[in-house]
Design brief:
single chain, alpha+beta, Aminopeptidase, five-stranded antiparallel sheet, three-stranded antiparallel sheet, 8 strands, globular
Length: about 180
């Protein structure tokens, strides 16, 4: 298997690029902060964070898509991650995001997630996307809704427990369900 080239995406203010070794520090800090990472399956110690980080890099090789590192176009500061992932056993591709402290409160995550979603639909040709969100993660719910996603159902994730499925609008028309995959 050859390692795929990770496309770089640009928005007005942001660059979404493939992960680099220097991105591990901010990722480990995110996973060490229980108040911030609980909605993303954490907290994780540094070793577990490293395993998650390298798994996410390997996801690009196995699936041809994954998480981009979000950076500021002007300063190159690392602001978070966003992308499409589908771990083994996942019923469909999911659009996910994580804001690091420098990426909060400026519309960065919406801009980055929209760029990732547009890439998924227009370049990758995916017909539908969801975002699976832990109950109580009001900031992620607000972002999903800002992106036009609508609550579809709850499901029991075998690893994480109860999650909420938010369905993103498809490129041409709203997706007609898809929850049968979660049954």
């Amino acid at each position: 298997m050859q390692f795929p080239s990770i496309p770089q995406l640009e928005t007005e203010r942001l660059v979404l690029r493939g992960p680099e070794a220097a991105d591990f520090g901010p990722m480990a800090a995110f996973f060490a902060d229980e108040a911030r990472c609980w909605g993303f399956g954490g907290p994780l110690d540094r070793n577990e964070a490293w395993r998650w980080f390298t798994m996410s890099v390997g996801h690009w090789a196995m699936r041809g898509f994954g998480f981009w590192t979000i950076t500021c176009k002007v300063t190159a500061e690392t602001l978070g991650i966003t992308g499409i992932w589908q771990p083994e056993g996942w019923p469909e591709p999911e659009l996910g995001w994580v804001a690091f402290p420098a990426g909060e409160g400026r519309g960065v995550m919406a801009e980055a997630a929209m760029a990732a979603r547009t890439h998924a639909y227009e370049i990758m040709g995916l017909p539908a996307l969801c975002s699976n969100i832990f109950p109580g993660n009001t900031r992620s719910v607000a972002l999903a809704e800002r992106l036009g996603a609508v609550f579809e159902a709850e499901f029991e994730n075998p690893k994480h427990g109860r999650e909420l499925v938010y369905r993103h609008p498809a490129p041409a028309a709203p997706c007609d369900g898809g929850m049968e995959a979660y049954a």
